[in-house]
Amino acid sequence: MLLAGQQLPQHIAFIPDGNRRFAAQLGLKAIIGHYLGNKKLKHVVHWCRELGIRYVTVYAFSTDNFKRSAEEVARLMKLARAQFEALVNDEDIPMWRAEVRVIGDLSTLPPAVAAAAAHAMTSSQERSQTISVLNVSFSYT
């Protein structure tokens, strides 16, 4: 194993980039690229936890992303809401004793997205004694 005997970091951060380019190369709509990138990122976060990395930060949506077309922003908000809701039901969160923290200016989000983010945070805090953290930077600058 490549990492055998090596000390792993306790915190890793990811900046997803290239989802739209990836989709374009495949002749797909941009939102499909975002969906596929998010799906792969979920696997990466799971791999981090399996390796014992306690803190993972995902820079998911910067305030600059609001400059994209209204249609793309609306689709991204719909995807974000679905992903925050999925975190509430993710069986791995309590198993890993993980706390979800959504960091950013949630007041800039549509109410349903902000509510889903808040619910993801409170439900993770209620379900576990925290030993790991998933930070989701959303509407950050």
Automatic annotation (TrEMBL):
It is an enzyme of class 2 (transferase). SUPFAM superfamilies: Undecaprenyl diphosphate synthase. Pfam families: Prenyltransf. One of its GO terms (molecular function) is ditrans,polycis-polyprenyl diphosphate synthase [(2E,6E)-farnesyl diphosphate specific] activity. GO terms for cellular component: endoplasmic reticulum. Gene3D superfamilies: Decaprenyl diphosphate synthase-like. Its EC number is 2.5.1.-. One of its GO terms (biological process) is polyprenol biosynthetic process. The keyword Transferase applies. Keywords: Transferase. InterPro entries: UPP_synth-like (IPR001441), UPP_synth-like_sf (IPR036424). Belongs to the UPP synthase family. This is Alkyl transferase. It comes from Tetradesmus obliquus.
